Amino acid sequence: MARLSVNVNKIATLRNSRGGNNPDLIQVAKDCERFGARGITVHPRPDERHIRYQDVYDLKKIVTTEFNIEGNCQEQKFVDLVLAVKPEQVTLVPDALGQITSNHGWDTITHQQYLKDTIKIFADAGIRVSIFVDPVVEIVEAAATTGTHRIELYTEAYAHGYAANREEAIAPYVKAAEAAKRAGLGINAGHDLDLQNLKYFAENIPALDEVSIGHALISDALYYGLENTVQMYLRQLA
Ligand SMILES: CC(=O)[C@@H](O)[C@H](O)COP(=O)(O)O
Ligand SMILES: NCC(=O)COP(=O)(O)O
């Protein structure tokens, strides 16, 4: 069964909207783990609009499952943060400054040397590295020669296409996952996964190691409560 890592960015968004500590990000992360999540994901952005750099240090002290930090390694501040915190996993995402959310994966062909050099820095520090990629076989094959341990398949296109034609939507992900497996890479996935589309994704990508889910899961928790919601997502992966 793929590991569920809860992305708590949106808890920080809500907290920051009032300037206090409600909701308490640390307590929510502890509770997600208590309710069955097997990882906590954060994506600190340079403007700290949701996760603040201090949150990352604070979370490191309490996460007992797997801590996954996502972000833009072209920001030296991000590299320094990850090396100081030493999470179990870092996920490299090619964000542009001011981007609302992640909207593309790494071009592992064009940026091969840059990725090799950067991944080595994290791998030498004992941190597992995953790189965020679009579901394109050539991109996955080129990822395999960067030294990364895993890829994270960017699932926005799948989530977007699911309702209209789920067979068509999953097809590139099946091919990309097969290429990753042939190359010996672990497979993570994330972005816009939800209670409607998660089960079909997991069923069709049997080698899936981990999903990180934030926006939909935290939104669902408003209706179902956090404990129920985490359990509902876990059932989609079972
Ligand atoms: C890489 C990825 O898909 C997620 O980390 C997503 O970008 C969440 O970031 P935001 O919460 O800032 O939208
Ligand atoms: N890596 C994807 C992630 O952490 C959460 O993405 P989303 O569920 O908030 O779209």
From TrEMBL:
<feature type="binding site">
    <location>
        <position position="192"/>
    </location>
    <ligand>
        <name>3-amino-2-oxopropyl phosphate</name>
    </ligand>
</feature>
<feature type="binding site">
    <location>
        <position position="7"/>
    </location>
    <ligand>
        <name>3-amino-2-oxopropyl phosphate</name>
    </ligand>
</feature>
<comment type="function">
    <text>Catalyzes the complicated ring closure reaction between the two acyclic compounds 1-deoxy-D-xylulose-5-phosphate (DXP) and 3-amino-2-oxopropyl phosphate (1-amino-acetone-3-phosphate or AAP) to form pyridoxine 5'-phosphate (PNP) and inorganic phosphate.</text>
</comment>
<keyword id="KW-0664">Pyridoxine biosynthesis</keyword>
<dbReference type="InterPro" id="IPR013785">
    <property type="entry name" value="Aldolase_TIM"/>
</dbReference>
<dbReference type="GO" id="GO:0008615">
    <property type="term" value="P:pyridoxine biosynthetic process"/>
</dbReference>
<feature type="active site" description="Proton acceptor">
    <location>
        <position position="43"/>
    </location>
</feature>
<feature type="active site" description="Proton donor">
    <location>
        <position position="191"/>
    </location>
</feature>
<dbReference type="InterPro" id="IPR004569">
    <property type="entry name" value="PyrdxlP_synth_PdxJ"/>
</dbReference>
<feature type="binding site">
    <location>
        <position position="18"/>
    </location>
    <ligand>
        <name>3-amino-2-oxopropyl phosphate</name>
    </ligand>
</feature>
<dbReference type="GO" id="GO:0005829">
    <property type="term" value="C:cytosol"/>
</dbReference>
<feature type="binding site">
    <location>
        <position position="101"/>
    </location>
    <ligand>
        <name>1-deoxy-D-xylulose 5-phosphate</name>
    </ligand>
</feature>
<comment type="pathway">
    <text>Cofactor biosynthesis; pyridoxine 5'-phosphate biosynthesis; pyridoxine 5'-phosphate from D-erythrose 4-phosphate: step 5/5.</text>
</comment>
<dbReference type="InterPro" id="IPR036130">
    <property type="entry name" value="Pyridoxine-5'_phos_synth"/>
</dbReference>
<comment type="similarity">
    <text>Belongs to the PNP synthase family.</text>
</comment>
<feature type="binding site">
    <location>
        <position position="50"/>
    </location>
    <ligand>
        <name>1-deoxy-D-xylulose 5-phosphate</name>
    </ligand>
</feature>
<feature type="binding site">
    <location>
        <begin position="214"/>
        <end position="215"/>
    </location>
    <ligand>
        <name>3-amino-2-oxopropyl phosphate</name>
    </ligand>
</feature>
<feature type="active site" description="Proton acceptor">
    <location>
        <position position="70"/>
    </location>
</feature>
<protein>
    <recommendedName>
        <fullName>Pyridoxine 5'-phosphate synthase</fullName>
        <ecNumber>2.6.99.2</ecNumber>
    </recommendedName>
</protein>
<feature type="site" description="Transition state stabilizer">
    <location>
        <position position="152"/>
    </location>
</feature>
<feature type="binding site">
    <location>
        <position position="45"/>
    </location>
    <ligand>
        <name>1-deoxy-D-xylulose 5-phosphate</name>
    </ligand>
</feature>
<keyword id="KW-0963">Cytoplasm</keyword>
<dbReference type="Pfam" id="PF03740">
    <property type="entry name" value="PdxJ"/>
</dbReference>
<keyword id="KW-0808">Transferase</keyword>
<comment type="subunit">
    <text>Homooctamer; tetramer of dimers.</text>
</comment>
<dbReference type="GO" id="GO:0033856">
    <property type="term" value="F:pyridoxine 5'-phosphate synthase activity"/>
</dbReference>
